[in-house]
Each structure stands twice: as structure tokens, then as C-alpha cells.
Specification:
526 residues; 15-stranded mixed β-sheet; globular
């Protein structure tokens, strides 16, 4: 009886139901993509804190969400008939290595039923057991590494990946979004090489390209005379993510005026250098990186997770529309000051800096000195723009240097309304926090005079109380204060909580990733 009612549902109702189901499936996939289920490790975790944990990776136990459309098509003939004649339902394709040989048929069904519709493709070949240990690999000689046999499961998964990609690449002209996540270096090179083959149809509709090679010490390097991705195509990519994959894989014309969002993670220190290349990055690769930045005239968000020895250009690079810049690096002091000086970003409003090291002190005085120059309207050696930020986010800054420089910087940052002193610095955030205190010279000398929202981690309670009370007396209350401190000091009164308009006590973080901290992905305590 129930099945007869199901079969009687009119097509317009079925369409609404399946659209909602597809939206739920997309949300479930998004949640799956953010974390490795059951372990609490984000796919893009890296840096000293992550690597010193020496994770022992086990085979994946949780599968990504199954295709709701394939399941629905098997309910009854009416549903199957409706779905197969509705191409717009078959535009979001997610395939996992878990499917084995069935992955190829999965791809073929979607390609057939989607007709000429544009496609959003996600391929997950990311079994954690294929990850090379981040620590043991550095102690293994090349001969030992090469002699270690590749598991049969990894080999067969590579065969299935190639077959699926060959089928999909024949329809590259219909790709709107493409995401590939891998944990095997062999699978990564297989996929990149296949997508570097000439195609009858150009990738003229591709707007989003995310290539993620995760949790491996060897990144996917690219030899300059090798073919580049999508040869002969000029895809209008707006959103590009290269994680663990060299920026030289895409051809230079892929970095066009369309690109607005770019994120690059490439740790040259983890990449095995060639004999002529002591720092893991050839001069040609460095030149391509500079050319890349110079072509991105409409870039609005840029995230660089790089390890560079230096940053040197002959002429300044112009990024006139860049609104948000995030830099995460162990070697920040080596290249970030020159980057800030030589890349002109007159519309930059959000700056996030995260130091990716557990060293007791990570001197970044050169970064602060350059910021102080860029924010000083009277500086003689300032580059061709005045930096006027709305938001400043500092994470893992274990800074013990030059309080006068910090004070000068904060006084000059008159437009900053939001400041984050993020986790990872332990008690060393106190130096940055103390720079917020007023001086006897009053309002003209007030650090961050427009500050409305303060996010503070690991600042001692008595310091936080002093900052709130003294700034309130001079400049009025903060609009919002988000505060986290594991060390509860009951000797310090809580009378300062009511001196801000909204006081929030941070509980546990979803993760230590800088984008989650800046995005305030955490729980709250009463």
C-alpha cells in the first residue's frame, strides 16, 4: 500500500523532494570533507604541532555519503523514470575509492543521465593508510623507501582512479567544479598526468579547481618541461586550491583575470630537492610564482602556506583588489616582510598571520617592522600604498621583542576594528596584549583606537582585566570580547566582564586551523 502512494507522487513534488535530498547530501559531503571522521583531524592540518604527534594512520573506516540518486532510482520504476529524464538532478558527482571497481559504472551513470549539464565532481582517493609517516620518512634513505612494496589495495585503487578519470576527462568541457583529494603520491601523479593530456574539448567552463594532496612529506613537484594541466584550455577558474601540489602544474594562462580566490600550500622543506636545488624550489618555479601573482589583477582572497628562503622581485607586484590575505609559515621571518613590501595591496582589509612552529620564541620583528612602515603615512621608505586594515589576526606569535615597535604599530593602525590574538602562543600572547594598554598621553596615543572586537587566547586574567578597565575609561567599552584562558585565577575579580557590551567565554575549539579561529568555530562556556 505504501509503495503505491509513493508511485503516485506527481513529478513536481518529486522534483522538490529530490532537490532537497541533493542539498542534504551536499551538506553531508561538506561535513565529511572537513574532518577525518572519528579522529578529529582536519584534512589540511600541518605544521610542527601536527607533525610531532606522529600519527599512526589506519585504513579508513567511515565511508563518505552514498549517492542518494542511485539509491532513489532503485525504489520503483516511476522514480527511476523521473530521475533518468531529469538531467539537472545528476550534476553533483561524488566518487570514493571505497567503491572499488563499481566507481567506473557510478561515473558512467551520472555522465549519461546528466546530458549536457555542467558537472560538480568530487573524487576522494584519501585512505589514511596510504599516508607516508611525516617523521619516519625523513629518517629513511631513498633506497629503503623505494624498496618498500606498495600495498595491493593502493595499486588497485590507482587503477580504478585512472579508469574513472579517463571517463570523466572526455567530458572536461562540462566540468564546472572539480575536487580531487589524495593521500598517495602515486595516485596524485597519475591523476595530474592524465589531466595534462590534450583533450578534444577544452575546459572552458571550469570555475572551481581544488587539488589536495594531504599529510605527506613529499609534495607533487612539477618539472618545468612537463605538460601542464588542461593544455590548450583557458578555463575561467575563479576558485583555485593547490594543497601539496606545485603551483607550476597549472599553465600560466590559467591564472587569468577571472581568478578571485587562491590558496596555495607548498612546503618546500618537505620536498626532496634536486642536486642543483638546495632549498627544494628551482629558480624557474620561483619565477613562475612571481608571474602567477602578477597576473591576478582581480584576486580578492589569497592564502599562502609556504616555506620560502626569500621573496625578491625587480618591480612591485600589483594586487589592486585583494581584500583578504592569510599567511601561514615556519619561515615567515625569511620572506613575509619582503612580500608585504613588494606586493602592493591598497584595498587589503583583512590580514591573518600564523606562525607554524613550536619554537619557544619565533622572532617576527621584521614582519612587525614592515607593517609599522606600511601603516605610517609619514614614512619615507614606505612602498606605494598605505595599509589600512579592518581586521588583524595573529596566531602562534611567541613574540618577546621591542614593545616600543608594537606600540607604534598599534597606534598607527587606526582603522582596525577586530583583533585576534589566537591560540598556540601560550602565555607569550601577553606581550601583544600589553601593547593595547593606554599610555599617559591619552587618546592621541591610544593603540588601536577604533577597536570594537577583541578575541584573546591565553592572556592571563589579570592582564585582560587591566586592558578592559583602562581602555574603557579612556575610549569607552568594547562592543565584543571573546576570551579563552585555561588557567582560572580566582584571586582576580570578575568585575571587568560587565565593562564590555558583549562578553563571551570561549570553550573548546573545533580545530586550531587559522580559518576556524578567524571564523570563530568554537563552543562557549556559561
Amino acid at each position: 500500500m505504501a509503495s503505491s502512494y509513493v508511485e503516485r507522487l506527481p513529478d513536481d513534488i518529486l522534483f522538490m523532494i529530490f532537490k532537497l535530498v541533493c542539498e542534504d547530501e551536499k551538506e553531508a559531503l561538506h561535513e565529511y570533507l572537513q574532518d577525518r571522521p572519528g579522529v578529529g583531524i582536519c584534512w589540511d592540518d600541518w605544521g610542527d604541532d601536527f607533525e610531532t604527534q606522529c600519527m599512526e594512520w589506519a585504513p579508513a573506516s567511515d565511508n563518505p555519503p552514498q549517492s542518494a540518486l542511485l539509491l532513489a532510482a532503485g525504489v520503483c520504476e516511476h522514480w527511476q523514470s523521473f530521475l533518468t529524464r531529469t538531467p539537472s538532478m545528476w550534476t553533483a558527482l561524488q566518487i570514493s575509492f571505497h567503491e572499488g571497481a563499481a566507481a567506473l559504472e557510478h561515473a558512467r551513470i551520472f555522465l549519461r543521465h546528466s546530458g549536457t549539464s555542467l558537472l560538480q565532481i568530487t573524487l576522494l582517493w584519501d585512505d589514511p593508510s596510504w599516508i607516508v609517516d611525516l617523521l619516519s620518512d625523513t629518517d629513511t634513505t631513498d633506497s629503503e623507501s623505494e624498496s618498500k612494496p606498495t600495498p595491493r589495495e593502493e595499486i588497485m585503487a590507482g587503477v580504478h582512479l585512472v579508469l574513472v578519470l579517463q571517463e570523466l576527462y572526455a567530458h572536461v568541457h562540462r566540468w564546472r567544479e572539480f575536487t580531487l583529494r589524495t593521500t598517495s603520491i602515486a595516485h596524485t601523479y597519475q591523476a595530474l598526468s592524465l589531466m595534462s593530456r590534450p583533450s578534444i574539448h577544452p575546459a572552458r567552463k571550469l570555475e572551481k579547481l581544488h587539488l589536495q594532496f594531504i599529510h605527506n612529506p613529499r609534495h607533487a613537484t612539477h618539472i618545468m618541461d612537463e605538460p601542464s594541466l588542461f593544455p590548450g584550455s583557458v578555463p575561467p577558474i575563479r576558485d583555485l586550491l593547490l594543497f601539496g601540489i606545485s603551483w607550476t602544474w597549472p599553465s600560466s594562462h590559467m591564472f587569468s583575470s577571472h581568478l578571485s580566490d587562491l590558496r596555495i600550500h607548498y612546503d618546500c622543506c618537505c620536498t626532496r630537492p634536486r642536486a642543483h636545488d638546495n632549498d627544494g624550489t628551482t629558480s624557474e618555479q620561483a619565477e613562475v610564482f612571481l608571474q602567477l601573482l602578477g597576473a591576478l589583477v582581480n584576486l580578492r582572497t589569497l592564502a599562502l602556506e609556504l616555506e620560502l628562503v626569500s621573496f625578491s622581485v625587480t618591480t612591485p607586484i600589483e594586487l589592486p583588489h585583494l581584500h583578504s590575505l592569510a599567511i601561514k609559515s615556519r619561515s615567515m621571518a625569511s620572506w613575509t616582510p619582503e612580500f608585504l613590501h613588494d606586493v602592493h595591496m591598497p584595498n587589503l582589509r583583512i590580514l591573518t598571520l600564523c606562525v607554524a612552529t613550536l619554537e619557544p620564541v619565533n622572532s617576527v620583528q621584521g614582519v612587525f617592522a614592515e607593517l609599522a612602515t606600511l601603516t605610517d603615512p609619514d614614512a619615507d621608505d614606505r612602498s606605494g600604498y598605505l595599509l589600512e586594515l579592518d581586521e588583524l589576526h595573529l596566531l602562534n606569535f611567541r613574540h618577546r621583542e621591542n614593545p616600543a615597535l608594537l606600540h607604534r604599530l598599534f597606534v598607527q593602525m587606526a582603522s582596525v576594528e577586530t583583533l585576534t590574538l589566537g591560540p598556540g602562543a601560550d602565555d607569550k600572547n601577553v606581550a601583544l596584549a600589553m601593547a593595547l594598554l593606554p599610555t599617559p598621553y591619552g587618546l592621541p596615543d591610544l593603540p588601536l583606537p577604533s577597536l570594537q572586537t577583541l578575541v584573546a587566547f591565553d592572556v592571563p586574567k589579570h592582564v585582560m582585566r587591566l586592558i578592559v578597565l583602562e581602555r574603557t575609561m579612556l575610549a569607552g567599552p568594547l562592543e565584543e570580547l571573546y576570551y579563552h584562558n585555561d588557567r582560572e585565577d580566582k584571586s582576580v575579580p570578575d568585575d571587568w566582564h560587565h565593562e564590555v557590551e558583549k562578553y563571551h567565554r570561549i570553550g573548546s575549539l573545533n580545530s586550531d586551523r587559522y580559518m576556524d579561529v578567524v571564523g570563530r568555530q568554537w563552543s562557549y562556556l556559561a
